[in-house]
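Re: the request from the purification team.
They wanted to know what the chain is likely to look like in 3D before they choose a buffer screen. I agreed to run a prediction and write the result into the notebook, where they can find it.
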Amino acid sequence: MKNYFDVPERRPWEDAPPTGFDGPDEGIVVRKYGGSSLATPELVHGVAQEVAGLVRTGKHVVVVVSAMGNTTDELVALAGQFADQPDPRELDQMMATGEQLSAAALALALTRRGVKAVSLSGDQAGIVVGGEPGSGTIVRIDPTRIVERMRDEQVVVVAGFQGRDATGELLTLGRGGSDTTAVALAAALGSPTCDICTDVQGVRTADPRIVPETQPVPTIAYEVMTELAHHGARVLHPRSVELAERHGVSVRVLHSSRPGPGTMVEAAEPLEGGPEVIGVAPERDVRQVRLMGPRLLAGGTARVLARLAASGLRPDTLTWPDPDVLWFTVRGSAPLAGPVRELAEELGAHWEIDEDLGAVSVVGTGLLDDPGHLSALLRVVGELGVTVPTMATSPSRLTAVLPADRLDTAVRALHEAFGLNVPAEARR
């Protein structure tokens, strides 16, 4: 069985259909274990025992692993002891060792249990990537070596988060890249399902660390899961969900050590019963930029938006309260003052940045079909005495920006207001 993804390296491979795909293979299990599931030798042995159980059922197993525990953060801190601003290439070389260590450790633990196993780096697994250090994207997968090992009845343990580019340089995929590695390999090997094993028992209606009464979500559509992942839910990386949808791979989110059904992320069924709220997600590290000036609109809005796009800033929301003022929000903690100052100078505008903001998103299906959802969001936030400077809406998401210190309170209030503290079947 040889399945290849072979598309031009000038664009991500997920933009094109697989080449040589010969249909789903139910005999292959592709499973990813996150760093929290591998944080100690005891946990690694527990994962090895679980994988050995899969092998005894006659399955061919490919395991993708993240770095053990907080290893990636520790490696980044270690790099900082040698350089104030580590060279991105060298930082990638250092960070990739975390996943390689996990892969070798799990292979050894499996061998100890009498299970034939081999660890492979991303490069050895046939993963070719493109882009820049720290943010690579997969452009091609040749699973030949993995298939050969499976034919030899070996469990193949692949280091996630990494691959080699066309010149032989090692590149990492950015945080959450192991999820993407696992889904990509499932698609390349023809597995209809990819298991993501983590420290939570599937997708919940909210973060259980904020809302104790969260409920499990048994199934969720790709597009809804993508919204949750983009806007605060950390169960899956959004790129992995988009990739799964593109190639028709169902993603099953499971707890790494507790038995249970988890959550299946798959294509949506035809909408029945009208709009539905599925979850509430918080997002921290949101900042609002204000540009102000009488010459701001000289040359038209297209000029301003073009300059904004060229600045490297990635606005999440845009608001134009009057002709001489532009507001936009930016997510993340990357340095912002420098790019904003340059943009303001180009536009002849004054600038301000509001820090200490967050965003809360109500996520579901058909949310704009019922205006009651938006009014309920505004009512709940208003009752908290919070001013919302910016909002964003889509058919599957309603987002309000608000002070970061009120974020958890808003999540709990919205979770209760939309009835998410009871099982889904009781809400219907």
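For the purification team: The radius of gyration is 23 Å.
Please add any questions underneath this entry.
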